[in-house]
Automatic annotation (TrEMBL):
It comes from Streptomyces cyaneogriseus subsp. noncyanogenus. GO terms for biological process: respiratory electron transport chain. PROSITE patterns: 4FE4S_MOW_BIS_MGD. Coiled coil: none annotated. One of its GO terms (molecular function) is metal ion binding. Pfam families: Molybdop_Fe4S4 (PF04879), Molybdopterin (PF00384), Molydop_binding (PF01568). Keywords: 4Fe-4S, Iron, Iron-sulfur, Metal-binding. This is Nitrite reductase. Signal peptide: none annotated.
Length: 713
């Protein structure tokens, strides 16, 4: 491969920072600043800067592994490994029916991989049992966005709008740790005279930057948002004209909010009435304002209603679908947005189509060259799928996730995974989940292959191949092709699984044409030339890949510019109006009691990424964040007699985890916090509650009842 710099994007989070990569003669890869990508303007966090370390073959799987007679994983040829996977999946299917085969994907996979995986499940395996880790991520915001606006795109505007608005309420988001280069959008907002309100039970490094920090009890954001809406009404701050012209359902939402008196909300949330009033004043004072949510309010068993309540606040005050105003969700994984649009979600087909919609089934079946009736219906959500392993689901193909560390009630999930008849894992490293597999397939990753991702802004990006992969690995697309050849050659199915990412993207364009997430006007060439294109971007009418009448907004044949800003004229609902959500406060699935008197919440630290499968292998990151910890308030620590660094045990109804105490006044005395990046004794997810949101099926990662005990060091 050439020795010049290749412009590409980071493998990790949804900011998808631009970077240049240059392979050096000694086999290492140098990261240099890529100033032409506007989102990060060259800035990278430590994870992005050190990402090439994980390209090194020393840390990598470079040969397929198969479970041998004595139970160990031993190297095998690609042919043998793929034969074994095909046989393992086929055996479950023959013995127990197509739904006995499960597929689990990831929001880090490129659009091409996510698309091919969804197609593989439905066309080759004929199973309905596919879902992915994005269900654990922003599914509640997605559900609420669909209900309110008729469309779910993380941010309906580019990040560059943030510093130009008047006020931002950032709810349960900690970009200082989770998207450091994005922090500047909020500091610039304040430098421009705008105000920043942070809602987080912890005084995080992000909260330290705020004009106002509200620290609610975990799991009470729904009540908080209702209390703010109550004050908006009581203080006469409703934008009546906007509500009349651009929304529906206000009367019911208003009545619900009026039942949430500020004093009542103060009792539930612990946020004082004067603070509530101050927040309303700050939010309503300027011309334009935004509410942005992340995992704090979303990863709750009422996350959909909670986000709905924050959207209600935007709608009542006329702050959605107007310049520099709106509600947005900060998606998480590198392709958290695109990963949910193209068919690895249990209920979706490419282009954000619904699997239950007959017209959608017809369209996609035609692109795939199959009978619409052959497509299975919706399957189980991620946790429910993992919970069914070893019972209804006998074999699993896993690509791009490490649920042994990252799934809720992880000890149970691990036990379910161990009870499978057959597990195949595609990964770049031997993750904790891959270590349990019958066959491990070593795959290429970001800088070794070309593909597209869709960032938190809805900007579709081209991630270019910059280095040669190590000997012995194949791409996920090659794996799917090889399995299709083994399981569907009699039906000629392998032809539907090209290994060239651009060929997959060309098909994805056609499959998405006319859908909500329409990519049909996007090509690799445009992505390279334009530094990304915001969807929807329909193809010109009559063009290859276009749907009839797809050139909405442009004259026939004109190239669609893409859509950086949504909803300015109308929302994507049938009548063009945004819908208020009729929501009321409800408690978390588990509230403290005598046995479990405290609340546990979980999240992230800057130097580790997710299950840590990749970042725990990078020396510099490990030195910065070597292991798990339990954040607790000095009063709680004193009661336990625990000093800084002493091991403490956190116990929930699901299990017990032990990690060193980190004592800080930055957390509420009734709450403890653990990051979830580590396996073993300090695994936070041993404790978490898999209670699901009824609509999004999101588990309640952000709140469960625990007690904390001191442990003999
Ligand atoms: N360093 C790093 N960066 C990452 C990732 C990573 O693993 N590591 N992962 C990426 C991914 S996939 C995601 S989804 C994003 C997540 O990005 P964020 O949502 O910013 O991350 P979290 O730390 O999960 O949660 C954010 C905050 O929610 C707060 N919180 C906890 N409970 C509640 C609650 O009940 N209400 C409210 N309002 N807040 C609460 C926590 O204290 C925490 O500070 O980060 C992305 N970036
Ligand atoms: N307690 C608690 N738990 C949580 C959360 C929380 O806030 N609290 N957050 C949840 C959220 S938001 C998320 S997104 C999940 C994430 O949790 P996971 O789904 O476990 O995410 P990762 O650790 O990123 O796992 C990705 C795996 O895919 C591998 N990989 C990387 N690139 C590729 C590729 O191109 N192909 C293949 N085949 N594999 C690849 C990596 O090596 C890694 O093993 O965790 C969830 N779990
Ligand atoms: S902020 Fe996210 S995309 Fe940017 S360098 Fe860090 S991990 Fe990569
Ligand atoms: Mo996520």
């Amino acid at each position: 491969m050439q020795n010049s710099a290749t412009p590409t994007h980071c493998p990790y989070c949804a900011l998808q920072c631009g970077m240049n990569l240059t392979p050096a003669a000694d086999g290492t890869v140098e990261v240099t600043e890529r100033a032409d990508f506007p989102v990060n303007r060259g800035a990278l966090c430590g994870k992005g800067r050190t990402a090439p370390a994980v390209l090194s073959s020393r840390l990598r799987l470079t040969s397929p592994l198969v479970r041998s007679g004595d139970g160990t994983l031993v190297p095998a040829s690609w042919d043998e490994a793929l034969d074994r996977v095909a046989a393992g999946l086929a055996r479950a299917r023959t013995g127990h029916g197509p739904d006995a085969v499960g597929v689990f994907g990831g929001g880090g996979l490129t659009n091409e991989k996510a698309y091919a995986l969804g197609k593989f499940a439905r066309v080759v395996l004929g199973t309905s049992q596919i879902d992915y880790n994005g269900r654990f991520c922003m599914s509640s915001a997605a559900a609420a966005g669909m209900q309110a606006f008729g469309l779910d795109r993380g941010l309906p505007f580019p990040l560059e709008d943030v510093p130009r608005t008047g006020c931002v309420i950032l709810v349960g988001s900690n970009p200082a740790e989770t998207m450091p280069p994005a922090l500047r959008y909020f500091t610039e907002l304040r430098a421009n005279g705008g105000t920043l309100i942070i809602v987080d039970p912890r005084r995080t490094r992000t909260a330290e930057q705020a004009d106002l920090h509200l620290a609610p009890r975990p799991g009470t954001d729904l009540a908080l948002a209702l209390g703010l809406l109550h004050l908006v009404v009581a203080e006469g701050r409703v934008d009546e004209e906007y509500v009349r012209e651009r929304t529906s359902g206000w009367e019911e939402a208003r009545a619900a909010a009026m039942a949430h008196w500020p004093e009542y909300v103060e009792r539930i949330t612990g946020v004082s009435v004067p603070q509530l009033r101050e927040a309303v004043r700050m939010f309503c004072a300027p011309q334009a304002a935004m509410v942005l949510t992340a995992r704090g309010p979303e990863q709750q068993s009422k996350g959909t209603d909670t986000v709905g309540a924050w959207i209600n606040l935007c709608l009542a005050t006329g702050r959605a679908g107007r310049p520099l105003s709106g509600y947005g969700c900060l998606t998480g994984q590198g392709n958290g947005q695109g990963g949910r649009e193209h068919g690895q979600k249990a209920d979706q087909l490419p282009g954000y189509r619904r699997l239950t919609d007959p017209a959608a089934r017809r369209h996609v079946a035609e692109v795939w060259g199959v009978d619409p009736d052959s497509l299975p219906g919706p399957g189980r959500s991620a946790y429910e799928l993992l919970d069914a392993l070893g019972t209804d689901i006998r074999a699993l193909l896993l690509m791009g996730s490490n649920p042994v560390v990252s799934a809720p009630r992880a000890a149970h999930v691990e036990e379910r995974i161990r009870s499978l008849d057959f597990l195949a894992v595609c990964d770049v490293v031997l993750s904790e989940t891959a270590a349990l597999a019958d066959v491990v397939l070593p795959v290429t990753q970001w800088a070794e292959e070309t593909g597209t991702t869709t960032s938190l802004e809805g900007r579709v990006l081209l991630r270019r191949r910059a280095v040669t992969p190590p000997e012995g690995v194949r791409s996920d697309l090659q794996v799917l092709h090889g399995l299709a050849a083994r399981l569907g050659a009699d039906r000629g199915l392998e032809k539907g699984f090209p290994t060239d990412p651009e060929a997959v993207f060309e098909e994805l364009r056609r499959a998405s044409a006319g859908g909500l997430a329409d990519y049909s006007g996007i090509t690799y060439r445009r992505l390279a030339e334009e530094n990304g294109v915001f969807w929807p971007c329909p193809a010109p009418a009559g063009a290859d890949g276009g749907a009839p009448g797809a050139a909405a907004g442009g004259e026939a044949g004109a190239v669609h510019p893409g859509t950086p800003r949504l909803f300015l004229d109308r929302f994507a609902t049938e009548d063009g109006r945004a819908r208020f959500a009729p929501v009321a406060h409800r408690a978390a699935a588990e509230e403290p009691d005598e046995e479990y008197p405290l609340l546990l919440t979980t999240g992230r630290v800057v130097a580790q990424y997710q299950s840590g499968a990749q970042t725990r292998r990078v020396a510099e990151l490990n030195a910065a964040a070597p292991g798990p910890f339990v954040e607790l308030h000095p009063r709680l620590a004193a009661r336990l007699g625990a000093a800084e660094g002493d091991p403490v045990a956190v116990v929930s109804r699901r299990g017990r985890a032990v990690a060193p105490a980190r004592i800080t006044g930055a957390i509420r005395p009734d709450t403890v916090f653990m990051p979830f990046h580590w396996p073993g004794e300090g695994r936070a997810n041993t404790l978490t509650n898999p209670a699901l949101d009824p609509t999004s099926r999101m588990p309640e990662f952000k709140v469960c009842a625990v007690r904390v005990e001191s442990v003999e060091p």
